[in-house]
Each structure stands twice: as C-alpha cells, then as structure tokens.
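Weekly modeling sync, notes
Attendees: S.R. (lead), two postdocs, one rotation student

Agenda item 3: backlog of single-chain predictions. S.R. asked that every request posted to the team notebook include the full sequence so nobody has to chase files. The rotation student volunteered to paste the first one in as an example of the format we agreed on. Action items at the bottom.

Example entry:
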Amino acid sequence: VRNILTFLGFSILLSSCSILDSDLKVKVDSGWLLGSEESGVLSFKGIPFAASTEGMNRWRPPQRKQPWKEIRSAQDYGDYCPQIKRDTLWFELGKTSEDCLTLNVWTPKNSSVSQLPVMVWIHGGGYLQGSGNIPRLNNPEFVKQDVVLVTVNYRLNVFGFFAHP
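Predicted structure, as returned to the notebook:
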C-alpha cells in the first residue's frame, strides 16, 4: 500500500509540474525528464519510482531512486519486470530486468482545466505477468477527455508476491 501511495503521489506531482513546451522538459523530485508529444498528448514513459530491485534490493521493500543530474529521457518505456507466465504476446515484451519499477504518464498538452483528475491503471495478470508498457492497452485517448493517465510496472511473481498462493 505504501508503494502505491508513493507512485500516486509521484504521478500527481508530475501532473501539476510546469511544462516547457519548447522542449517537453518537466522537473520532478529526482531530476528533469524529457518527454514527447503526439496529437496534443504529452507522454513521459519509463519514469523510475524506485531503485533497481537487483542484488541486495531483491527481497527488500522498494528503495528510493537516487536523483539524477542530467536530463533523463522519458520517451521510451522502461524495462518489463521478470515474468514466469507469459501469455502476453511475445512481440509486446521488450527488455526484461529487475530495474523495472517505472511509471508512464500521459497528459493533455493544452487543457482549459488547471487541475486534472488522475486515472491510474494497474495492469492485471494475477501477479504473475503483465505490464503497464503494453501499447495496445495504453490508450492516450483518455487524456483527450482532460484526465492524466498513469500506468505502472510493479514486481511480479516471487519477486513481489512470494507469499501469494
């Protein structure tokens, strides 16, 4: 629950930050992000909300992501979390790694509303498979209805739900 509140807070922060239209840069707690724009929708993909879960962090609660100094590209999805069961179409899965705790955010470029509602989509898959990165499931058309859309990648199977039946 704490992790969900963390990324919800992060997404709300991102939705309220200032955007420099000329270069699609936004400032978040960890540093600057460079997003992209298509058909009036701004997207910021692969935004890390926690440190990598590799090595010493594998069985620990998510650790805070260290701030970055350079502008970080947020134009591509982050890595997929490791999955045991793969019913997801093979061509929809990109690189898989334990450095996969990321958010994807879409927001309208121009909105008449100053504070937009945030719609968070947490993918299904029985805690075994899935991703917030699957393009056919991420529909930025929602954003054209004046909402901010957030999808999330979270640890799956034994890496996140070791005690789950």
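Discussion: group reviewed the output briefly. Strands lie at 19-20, 25-28, 31-34, 36-38, 41-48, 72-73, 102-108, 118-122, 148-152.
Action items: rotation student to repeat for the remaining queue; S.R. to check formatting next week.
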